[in-house]
């Protein structure tokens, strides 16, 4: 084992400090969209993940997809259930399994708040980048996410597929 520290070079340090700024400044800014509704970003993320699943998701699958412990998921789900945005029920085939589904109220809420969320993401990140920078950012963060074993909902698996143009 090599005990020599591999210090960050100037470019790596700049990238790391910029990433920290996005996490430490950008994410709290994104939270402002959800705060008036009594939610935090991770709860919106759960709602968004469930909104893409008409049949719902097993709680164990949702926890894995969102990289959450069962305990943290349970706490966050209780809040979404209390707000009427999500329902949790047993699986008809396996009583040991719980399935979470977004409710109509949850879908309406997601449809109401998602335009503001997208506008915030654009304002904080993408409005400052040109198309080439956005592609480079997607490639770079995708490589890191793949290495981390990303299971984030909507994250591409493998190379990006170009969209057909009309």
Automatic annotation (TrEMBL):
Residues 1-146 form the HTH marR-type domain. PANTHER family: HTH-TYPE TRANSCRIPTIONAL REPRESSOR YETL (PTHR33164:SF43), TRANSCRIPTIONAL REGULATOR, MARR FAMILY (PTHR33164). It holds the Pfam family MarR_2. It comes from the Bacteria. InterPro entries: ArsR-like_HTH, HTH_MarR-typ, MarR/SlyA-like, WH-like_DNA-bd_sf, WH_DNA-bd_sf. This is MarR family winged helix-turn-helix transcriptional regulator. It comes from Dactylosporangium cerinum.
């Amino acid at each position: 084992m090599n005990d020599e520290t591999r210090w960050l070079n100037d470019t790596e340090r700049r990238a790391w400090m910029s990433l920290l700024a996005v996490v430490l400044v950008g994410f709290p800014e994104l939270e402002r969209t959800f705060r008036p509704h009594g939610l935090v970003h991770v709860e919106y993320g759960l709602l968004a993940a469930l909104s893409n699943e008409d049949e719902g998701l097993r709680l164990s699958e949702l926890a894995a997809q969102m990289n959450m412990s069962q305990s943290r998921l349970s706490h966050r789900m209780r809040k979404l259930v209390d707000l009427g945005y999500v329902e949790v029920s047993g699986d008809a085939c396996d009583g040991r399994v719980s399935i979470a589904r977004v409710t109509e109220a949850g879908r309406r809420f997601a449809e109401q708040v998602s335009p503001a969320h997208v506008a915030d993401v654009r304002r904080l990140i993408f409005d400052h980048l040109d198309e080439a920078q956005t592609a480079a950012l997607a490639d770079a963060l995708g490589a890191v996410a793949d290495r981390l074993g990303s299971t984030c909902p909507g994250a591409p698996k493998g190379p990006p597929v170009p969209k057909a143009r009309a």
